[in-house]
Amino acid sequence: MPANLPPQYFDAEKRYRLAKTPQEKIQALEEMLRIMPKHKGTEKLQGELRRKISKLKVEATKRSSGGRKSDIYFVEKAGAGQVALVGPPNSGKSSLLAALTNARPEVADYPFTTRLPVAGMMKFENVQIQIVDLPPVDPHLTEPWVYAVMRNANILWIVLDLSDDDLLEHLEIVLQQLQEANIQPVGLREEEESDHALAKRTLLVGTKADDPRAPDHLEILRELYGDRFAIFGVSSLDGDGLDALGRASFELLGIIRVYTKAPGKEPDLSEPVILPQGSTVQDFAEQIHKDFSRKLKFARIWGPGKHGGQRVQRDYPLTDSDILELHI
Ligand SMILES: Nc1nc2c(ncn2[C@@H]2O[C@H](COP(=O)(O)OP(=O)(O)OP(=O)(O)O)[C@@H](O)[C@H]2O)c(=O)[nH]1
Ligand SMILES: [Mg+2]
């Protein structure tokens, strides 16, 4: 019996062939399996795909025991910081990842579409911020590894559907689940330190702003949560509001960009050294080279609010966009 496979199947197969990580391969295979018509003619192929998926899953776990790098449920950090997408089912998390990055996660009009983490890089000025799409938060169905990814991320975006009449209820469920996972989302105000919860800087992102119900829901959200979180209304469909997420996330990451300059040369402004806010000349030198930090005599600094080329010592505090010339 002919299999009669639809063109989408071959798209997914192509993604499988091009996939580099076990995680991407599993995702493509699962998609092929889902797309494939289920009848006698495809039984053998279905079996083959299932076997491939299980084999890849076993391989991925085996390899992960030696190091976490290839664990399919863990996303190694990349770029200037990692954002985890947290939200109820169907809220538009995967669409947001697709709109902001080159990643092509599966998007569908039903809940629990996403089952494995998918990462992509969002550009903000001259830095890349990593965005990690996750399965939805649900009181019964969310597996523990999902919270492990959130705990490892630098910041969280709570992603809500602005077309959803039950948006507030869904937000409360997400906040409740985070609390149970001992994750404390921290927005605009310094929340009281909790002994056991892990504080995570958090933004609220309302998606589907193109929906006619969105403006009302956004207003209610701002009224009730606006003093606790920064809230953004965006549409992955037409791109509205997406630009603001880069800067807001950069600021929440608590990092600065500092540039190197060799004496007598122009600085290279394309490749910043990323440092935590509050870093000093000493911290910068350590990032560049161990020898630099040991032998450093002084540095010259250029940047906002500084006298160009001013001489500074090791303990001099740095700010975003500073340029440093190290002298050893
Ligand atoms: N109109 C509109 N629809 C959207 C937007 N973003 C997502 N959607 C639709 O919402 C549905 C769910 O989108 P997904 O991105 O798969 O949602 P998700 O949060 O990843 O869903 P799960 O993985 O199941 O948790 C899809 O039908 C999308 O096309 C948007 O900005 N505007
Ligand atoms: Mg999804």
Count of DSSP E strands? 12
Radius of gyration: 23 Å
Q: What ions, cofactors and ligands are bound?
A: guanosine-5'-triphosphate, magnesium ion
Global geometry:
globular
Helix content: 25-40%
- How many structural domains are formed by the residues? 3
Looking at CATH, the homologous superfamily of the largest domain is P-loop containing nucleotide triphosphate hydrolases
Uncertain stretches of 5 or more adjacent residues:
none
The quaternary organization reads as: single chain
What structural class do the secondary elements suggest? alpha/beta
Look at the structure and give the CATH class of the largest domain: Alpha Beta
Query: In percent terms, what proportion of residues is strand?
Result: 15-25%
- CATH fold descriptor of the largest domain: Rossmann fold
Euclidean distance between termini CA atoms: 76 Å
Mean pLDDT: 90
Second rung of CATH, namely the architecture of the largest domain: 3-Layer(aba) Sandwich
Number of helices: 10
Note the main sheet: 7 strands, mixed
SSE string, helices as H and strands as E: HHHEHEEHEHEEHEHEEHHEEE
